[in-house]
């Protein structure tokens, strides 16, 4: 019985690494306009197993990473509409920091397309990523926005 308990934390760490990599890839894609197949190839061949920002990406769940990056790319307009609907009046998505947009897009994609992942897990995971890039005020913003999006898409 101890086998499944040991694999769950390993899978959780692999998913966390995949999420962080997906946010980094989405940020890079927005900065450089890298086509998705080339971006995925770069991460598969050059990023996983490397240490980036003091995080070793060796255990990332590659299929999960691919799904998030491809999903955000394919459904960007729908995702952006969901996020924009929950921004304060007068705010536009392009006014947010690129890293923030990548976090919100990845989190919103999971809420829309990954019913196998609980709302709590999605929000907690992207709050952890937000902590790596932003202060408490911005982390609270991510929490509130993803919670509202979850209410919209998982109700």
Work out the helicity level. Answer: over 70%
Q: Count helical runs.
A: 7
Q: How much beta, percentage-wise?
A: under 5%
Biggest sheet, spatial arrangement of strands: 1-2
**If you average the pLDDT, what whole number results?**
88
Counting DSSP E segments of at least 2 residues, the number of strands comes to: 2
Characterize the largest beta sheet: strand count, sense, and whether it forms a barrel. Answer: 2 strands, antiparallel
Integer-rounded radius of gyration:
15 Å
Shape: globular
Report, as a whole number of angstroms, the end-to-end distance. Answer: 35 Å
> Which runs of at least 5 residues are low in confidence (pLDDT < 50)?
1-7
Helix and strand run: HHEEHHHHH
Report on this model:
With 155 residues, the protein is an all-alpha fold. The protein is 74% helix and 3% strand. The protein has seven helices and two strands, in the order H-H-E-E-H-H-H-H-H. A two-stranded antiparallel sheet has the order 1-2. The longest helix is centred in the first third of the chain and has 31 residues. The N and C termini lie far apart (35 Å). The relative contact order is 0.13.
């Amino acid at each position: 019985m101890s086998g499944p308990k040991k694999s769950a934390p390993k899978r959780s760490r692999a998913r966390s690494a995949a999420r962080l990599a997906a946010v980094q890839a989405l940020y890079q894609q927005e900065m450089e306009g890298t086509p998705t197949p080339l971006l995925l190839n770069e991460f598969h061949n050059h990023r996983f197993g490397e240490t980036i920002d003091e995080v070793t990406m060796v255990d990332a769940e590659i299929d999960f990473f691919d799904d998030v990056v491809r999903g955000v790319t394919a459904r960007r307009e729908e995702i952006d509409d969901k996020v924009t609907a929950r921004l304060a009046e007068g705010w536009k998505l392009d006014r947010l920091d690129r890293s923030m947009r990548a976090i919100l897009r990845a989190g919103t994609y999971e809420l829309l397309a990954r019913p196998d992942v609980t709302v709590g897990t999605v929000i907690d995971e992207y709050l952890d990523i937000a902590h790596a890039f932003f202060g408490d005020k911005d982390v609270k913003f991510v929490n509130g926005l993803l919670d509202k999006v979850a209410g919209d898409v998982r109700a």
